[in-house]
């Protein structure tokens, strides 16, 4: 019986709409709709004012790239660089001697560094890693710096005209291709060939492989591979090691993971075009659910038992008239369901995913849309498997390489981080990200961006040109 009543209400609503025979609204209904419109406009203004941290928002502007915490860390790193004088070298040597005594480090850091056409940030990157570490923390780290040039004199650390502070003295090991490629003349020649042809994506496979090999030999349980244009959070080491311990707990329960991402950009964590059927489905479900609830309430209010079911009989008298003076008249339900609710759904999507569904601080699963390769932490056991996979492709590349053609590069196709995603997908490995990021990208160039953002016209931190972690800028000094 109730289903028949509900169906009749829907039919009546449809007939009134088609005939445009919509009676005027009551004062209560008009007041409600006016308040809704005013509240909607107020929310629009609030979002335009506050939502600057979400690149997936329709209200996002270039001001969202404003560096905040990055500026503080840049100043601290620069001050640390200035303090690297002769008087500080004794402390640096003591930290190196601790690692030289054969003590197994907890973390091995590998960083390839090369001369860049624009800003050079490798000295800032290295300084931000060590400026707030305690002597005990520094002693737990082995830092391997790879000068990623077949001719090391091209790097600013060794170029006599370069203005970059030589922060390589903070490294435990400064590595060069001839030293770590062993007796493989074919590998050093191949690296030189990739340099000459500016095949930097392909060359990054060799850099990753060589650094992973070096860190694996250190026996450190964790390996961090960094790019030379990042800025570390104060307290990054403690935060990273605590997160790794949590992930190890997951591993004991059978949750195998490839890496912990210490940098990602929210730019690729927005609404995705390929998911539009899901968004449309849930939008339709929401509209249908609201319509169903309102029609159900109207049906209950119009029944003879309404006063016995509702707590305030005077507000809901028995057998209310179904004319327009009823607050849940059919025209009002129609306007609210097919105008107000869709407007709220549009506002929900326009606000952006990081506004309506923000990441909570901590470790998050990020098997898709993670970018980029600025900072990855691997377990040593997983690094060994990844090395075997890289070794196979590099061996095939060396075998197929020919100075007269490019066919050899088919074995090292795409960026190295994309290749690792293939490795993980083939083995059903999880990938995690630390939120907010422990590192910020401050480099001027990246292969993930074809064009530069207008942010460079406003801010002096180069990473604000696209590959940027907005949550990093909300961080503060470590407690």
From TrEMBL:
InterPro entries: PGAP4. GO terms for molecular function: glycosyltransferase activity. One of its GO terms (biological process) is GPI anchor biosynthetic process. The chain crosses the membrane at residues 28-47, 276-297, 327-350. Keywords: Membrane, Transmembrane, Transmembrane helix. GO terms for cellular component: Golgi membrane. It comes from the Eukaryota. This is Integral membrane protein. It comes from Talaromyces pinophilus (Penicillium pinophilum). The lineage of its organism: Eukaryota, Fungi, Dikarya, Ascomycota, Pezizomycotina.
